[in-house]
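Re: that chain you flagged

S.,

Sorry for the slow reply, it's been a week of failed gels. I finally had a moment to sit down with the sequence you sent. For the record, here it is as I used it:
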Amino acid sequence: MTNPAWARWPAHDRRPWTLGVEEEVMLLDAEDLSLASAIDDVLPRLPPSLREHATSETHTSALELATGVHGTVGDAVAELRDLRRGLAGALDALELRAAGAGTHPTAVWHEIAVSSGERHREIEGSMRALARREPTFALHVHVGVPTPAGAIGALNQLRVHLPLLLALSGNSPFWQGRDTELASARTPLWQAFPRVGIPRAFASYADWVHAVDLLVRSEAFPDHTHLWWDVRLNPNLGTVEVRVMDAQTSVADTAALTALVQCLVRLEVVEGNAPWRLLHAREVLEENRFLAARDGTRARLVDPDRDRRVAVEILVDEVLTACEPHASALSCSEELGRVRVVLDAPGAQRQREAAGDDGDHRRLLSFLVDAFVAE
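Prediction finished late last night. Pasting the structure tokens below so you have them in one place:
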């Protein structure tokens, strides 16, 4: 059966495993560092070179920065660093600031406004009160895969790795002015939306197309981009997109996670004998996702092969060992090596340290702003 037009996988005329990085950024008032509902003022004031990489999000206090397509993590992150600096400079003239984290530590829902764009209003009409909660901010990494068969295989296998990526990226411990005692409060907040979380495994690309096309043809939602799973396929781009991670405070942490994602995608497409080839049961994946959001890098995740829970640091060692030859082939060994730095000092821990024992949110927000453009 012929695939519908939206599901036709593009022919890759460049080398595989190319990258695109998207990060959702919070817009802040320069004076009190509260969320600023300013996207309609910001976008028209950006220089053209930056404007083409910036888009609005569902909430008026959020902006997405998106790199172009790059062959290496180093090139993608270099552009992201320039985009951050350019945005910070443009915001300074508007008496605004930018920061990266999975949640704003003190925002509450009644301070939030939904953006005016057609897609955003459509989401509000569909999600209703769910769209009017506090905004969350994520990091998305696209990796180009040559064939749809390879892409669906990567999606299926990446499901096993999603809790580990979430554990490493947890960067939202504060919500509504209090410490949630979670590494990623963004995860349960985002879970209120439909069509999120870990997708099921698909027998083939045709199985995936059939499942999604039924929902689109039935007008359950407008198109496949309204599937907000932790990992999804983008046929229009020819990419696998990993979406489970919190937005990162520093570009260096973003580089480490991006390298890990790129290596994992290549590993799962190229190799057929990885130690985790046996797909974990859905209930194991869901439990590991919760444990990762709760405990971050201190989590102990369920490992069916060992018949017990295993510390994240052990799983990281195993995954990095498996990824090392792929990192060499992808020229991202240095960035991949930084995953161990993230393991030792994850974002949620650094946020709590910045807030201090007295929970000073102003001090924490100043730290987030400064780190947005730090080297």
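What I noticed first: Residues 12-372 form a domain with the Creatine Kinase; Chain A, domain 2 fold (CATH 3.30.590.20).

Talk soon,
D.
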